[in-house]
Amino acid sequence: MANAAQNQHNLGENDERWRNVQSLRELFHGRFSEREAETIINHFHGNFQQAVNFGFEATQAEIEDVLGNGDGWQLVIYVRQHQVVQDLNRRYEITKEIRQFSCGLCNTMWWRKVPTRKMVSKCRTCKKRKKALPRDKEWGWARFNCVCGNEYHHFGAMDIRMLRGSNGVQLSGKSKSLCFRCNQYLVEPTEILPPRRRPRRSLPKGAHCTAYNCYKRYIPTVPEPIVPVCVHPRSLPITVLVAANSHTSTGSTVDTFMSQDDLITDINP
Question: What is the per-residue pLDDT for 242?
């Protein structure tokens, strides 16, 4: 029993050390080989922050003491002169963003936390890499701000060119929602909310939609405005409103090691 626990502990340590090695390589844009990065990490007994500080601040003598008298020092000088790495040096971190991805071929959408400098994620169905959707192409649970002063949340889309109106004409621009408070204005979404920023998804009592395709359409009374199209998932025949562009790797950087955290992708209310 004790041996099993010890083995599990060792596996955890090895996994953490591997992640630190890949993290150091990612921070320095793959300029360190895996062996060199591992040597630096091991030199500081697995302390990642000390290894990062070493990469940015160590003297030539210290570098050669750890990596040997080969190309280690010239490598570090080159890395430090790289403009992107200089920017990272100011922050000592790799920033991440929660971004939306989609695959038109597989009709799937997902959210993923990815490095800001490499916003790419792989479709789980076809395994093709996709670029993050631009903010003005996202859709999902959204924030709305009506001119009457009401702020509310509902499904919205920043680009509805894939959809058609009741007359069959292709639509454009953002989706619209009837304000739940005043019932007088059609409001466009202000932003699409990533899963971890979403408030509890519930609609006020009496909320209704006048769109021709709404799965629970409300017949409007004059002079209530008519919503051009409903983008609630239950009202749409497709999941993907905007297909993300495919990513072609240039091989210029090490594959992203960061955990691209899966986020809640459930689009049902």
Answer: 96
